[in-house]
Amino acid sequence: MSIDEQVLPYPIPNDAALKPPAEWAELRGTCPVAHVELPSGDRARLLTRYEDVRQVLADPRFTRQLNAPDAARLSADGGGVFNSEMAMIIPDSGEEHQRWRRLVSKWFTAKRMNAMRPAMAGIAENLIDEMVERGAPGDLKASLGFPLPVYVICDMLGVPAEDRDRFSYWSDTLLNLTRYGKDETEAAQAAFFQYMTDLLAGKRAEPGEDLLSELIAAGGPENGGLNDLQILVTGMALLVAGHETTANMIGKMVSMLLADRGRWEALLADRSLIRTTVEEALRLDANSGFGLPRYLKEGTEVSGVELPKGTTVICSMAAANRDESAFEAAGEFDLTRSPNPHLAFGAGAHSCLGQALARTELQVVLEVLLRRLPTLELAVPEAELERVEGLAVGGLRTVPVRW
């Protein structure tokens, strides 16, 4: 049976930690709007071509309303970050969505991120000191990749340092596809919700110089601000999004550079390549997770295929980023590639709010690692790196390194 007649399991199984499943190229070539079955057993359509993914992410008819009665459930229990009622509290479109983005995006400008660079570099230095003190081999993900973005986003939100370690478990349950049961997911989300409720009450009593205090100070909707529940959910969303994806990306990026030693050596020889290298690692990330699901509230067509109202579509940015029609030598890692209009942060009105933060963290990590640990290398063969399974984000379980 040809691939365009099959219903593929999704996420598409793939053992290779850093390489894409073979199906991506085949789908882009012959079946750009594929039938897939999600972990819930529900059906959806998968997009893998660059132009299709970019078009759909920018099209307001494709919404985030994945709690609609006929939307596909992503996980078997119907919970998780995409299908939850909570996901709907942040406005999805129109003037309300623009207002939300305006209020929050002030904290994520490139200018503000540049001002935070020295503090980020200091955090990275301390974490590397601790890893070196523990001795080789170390786990770069646990020692540096995971804590750095958590510390940074907690500082921005005004979360006390001693509470930082709780968030990894809470955010994993929010990103659940198949790892956790419904009861466990609901209990963790309730604990997270209660924590944020208490945190915000404290900030109302004693405001700090942080994003959540500023959102409270802006006043409610009648003053052009957000209501209490929107502020709470914004805090939860930023804590999850602000650390989970970047924590995983640090481990994957460094692994991609060390798996082919020539890439690491080229950066050691020319640090001016750090910025374009980060973009290329984002583009070539073959293990970025689930992709972006969208719910179609009126019928349309994509790549000549009719999609009826009520269709759930999965946009695979990672597959689109390897489209030969959009990138020359799309499968090659080119440290000098510029321009690099990859879709790792999405596109259109919902493109990732924290992309300047993620880029800055990735650049700073590379700068500090190259300076501090020029002899860094993987402590296991690339083939032994293992993927994170069962969550909506992609990553590596561990990144064993020595120096």
Automatic annotation (TrEMBL):
It is an enzyme of class 1 (oxidoreductase). SUPFAM superfamilies: Cytochrome P450 (SSF48264). Keywords: Heme, Iron, Metal-binding, Monooxygenase, Oxidoreductase. The keyword DNA damage does not apply. InterPro entries: Cyt_P450, Cyt_P450_B, Cyt_P450_CS, Cyt_P450_sf. CDD domains: Cyp158A-like (cd11031). One of its GO terms (molecular function) is cholestanetetraol 26-dehydrogenase activity. PROSITE patterns: CYTOCHROME_P450. Its EC number is 1.14.15.15. Belongs to the cytochrome P450 family. This is Vitamin D(3) 25-hydroxylase. It comes from Nonomuraea coxensis DSM 45129. The gene is vdh1.
